[in-house]
Amino acid sequence: MCRARASWSGSRRRKKSLPAWISRRSSPTQTVLLSGRLGNLRRAIEDRGAVEQLLHGEPHPGNVLSTKKGPLFIDLETCCRGPVEFDLAHAPEEVCKHYPNVDQGLLDDCRQLVLAMLAAWRWELGDQFPNGKRFGEEFLRLLREGPPWPAFDAVTRRLGGGR
Q1: I want to staple 93 with a disulfide (CB 3.0 to 4.6 A). Which of 53, 59, 151, 154 is the partner?
Q2: Are the CB atoms for 117 and 43 separated by under 8 Å?
Q3: pLDDT tens track for 49-64
Q4: Average pLDDT score over residue span 103-129
Q5: Residue 72, number of CB atoms within 10 A of its CB
Q6: 106-109 contacts: CB < 8 A, separation 24 or more?
Q7: pTM of the predicted structure, to 2 decimals
Q8: Strand (E) positions, the chain?
């Protein structure tokens, strides 16, 4: 099971709790927020019954190389199955405009899920993401503030960095 899928879907046979590495680095309030949000979003997305397909799992611009034959996706550790809106939640807003039939409600749920997943990853022990704590705190702030859920690239531009 891929990291992304484990973060939002988990096993259908057993409940997936927040990984222990998060609770060791985050405050109890952060742990409760992330655990509840990840669980609620997993259920909300699954309950929509959207068609699942093969996904990259994290197709942001930093995971795409420009080649002579066209774009090439790299960093495939997060490949998974799910609704296309999950991949679109990682993509710049301009990309979403090319998907006119996207389920906007599902895309919003997936954008919120991406924020929760990224916040959780920033509290992972050994996380070496540049300015990871700052990014993690911003993702948590956005989750607390509520909708509208921004596209990931808008958040990274505002913070002055990428993945």
Answers
A1: 151
A2: no
A3: 999 999 998 887 788 8
A4: 90
A5: 10
A6: 106/45, 106/48, 106/50, 108/147, 108/148, 108/149, 109/41, 109/44, 109/45, 109/48, 109/85
A7: 0.79
A8: 53-55, 64-67, 70-73, 80-82
